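Ticket #4471: structure output looks truncated?

Reporter: J.K.
Steps to reproduce: submitted the chain below (456 residues) through the standard prediction queue, then opened the result file.
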Amino acid sequence: MKQLHLFFVLVFATIASTSCVSPTVKSNDATGWDKVPEILKNISEPVFADAVYNILDYGATPSETIDSRPAILKAINECNRNGGGKVLIPAGTFFVKGPIVLKSHVNLHLEEQARLEFSTVPEDYLPMVLTKWEGTECFNYSPFIYSYQCTNVALTGKGTIDGNGAAVFNTWKALERPAMDRLRQMGNDTVPVYERTFGEGWYLRPCMIQFYGCNNVLVEGVQIYDSPFWIIHPVFCDNVIVRDVYIESFNYNNDGCDPESSTNVLIENAHFNVGDDGIAIKSGRDQDGWRIGQATESVIVRNCHFANWAITIGSEMSGGVRDIYIEDCKIDSCRNGIYFKSNLDRGGFFENLYMRRIHADICLWGMVNFRTDYHGYRGGNYPTLFRNITIEDVTCNRVDSVAIMANGVPEAKLHNITLRNIHVKQSPKATQMKNVVNLVLDNVTVNGKQVTSENE
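Returned output as attached by the reporter:
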């Protein structure tokens, strides 16, 4: 483990550490939405060799009880050794007793009517691997589909992935507090990562799909159900595409897609019906996020559909979040609409975020919500910097709390917030705003009445 940690340190040693409050402003001629074409130039699908490796040829058996994992891993290994290609999961149900580890230049492709059924036995996901758990690095149970430091890697097709997370892993939510507190304290104390060992007896649920330190990543077309924890989680990645996926999973903390400390990310035409945030953009938690200092930046989200939960920035965003573009999304009946969340432990920054053409039906907790007092606060005094955020062309039929909330703190007020052409048809309260500098409300209506800074 010490050798793995040293390798990890070398990989990220060149990443500049980010101040917990003041980001470094990048110079760039393009600003606002004009920057989107420039970002898209840096995002492209990975290219694979034409070779096909059918798992049936390696001993896989369509069965809900016979383990096909050894055959899948054999096919992946041979595909990788031979220079890459497609590892084919044909139609049928295949039981997988443990994690699938993807390698460079491999496209794991699920044909239509193919189904991967993952084991419900936690010990099957050992030995531990280097991972991130709610923004803090550690060694823990392996994600069900895991790729570490790979280039050109994909998960595609029209098949189904079932994590069976409700059977055992969802029950761990009630047992996780000792491990969660231990891990967060380790992060705060900058304990070496190789000493942060969890796994058996600690009840930290693994992610469903995690790409860790990878370049050129594609997740396309698959249907995903019943995850044990976060669902699609790119960490320290560059050039990531998540497209045309359908996710339905209602366990605790079932975030749909969490790009974390990653750059050049495109999420499009995806459907999220999940038990927590549909998309949550993150960059590490507290001191652990500052230590690494890698922001999430240059992210485009478009043409996505959200049910139950919607779009969130944070709360683990201590490395900073910048240059985020979200457009043409639909929100059904959800707890939140557009949600920024942080607290005085986080530090970091939100800057240069743009959203437009969002339509929501019902949002219980608000259509637009900037929250600087999110739960989990441990007594720090590191306010998050919010600046240069524009949200426009938003409609919502009903909010059951406060339609628009923008609450900064005196130590770090919200700066340069523009809300334009936002219309909430029905809400018991229009706005709640304080500690905002240069707030622009341009054609904002709630309950048919114009909202201005004077009547907030």
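Triage note (M.O.): checked the attachment and the full token line is present. Residues 1-27 have pLDDT under 50 and may be disordered.
Status: closed, working as intended.
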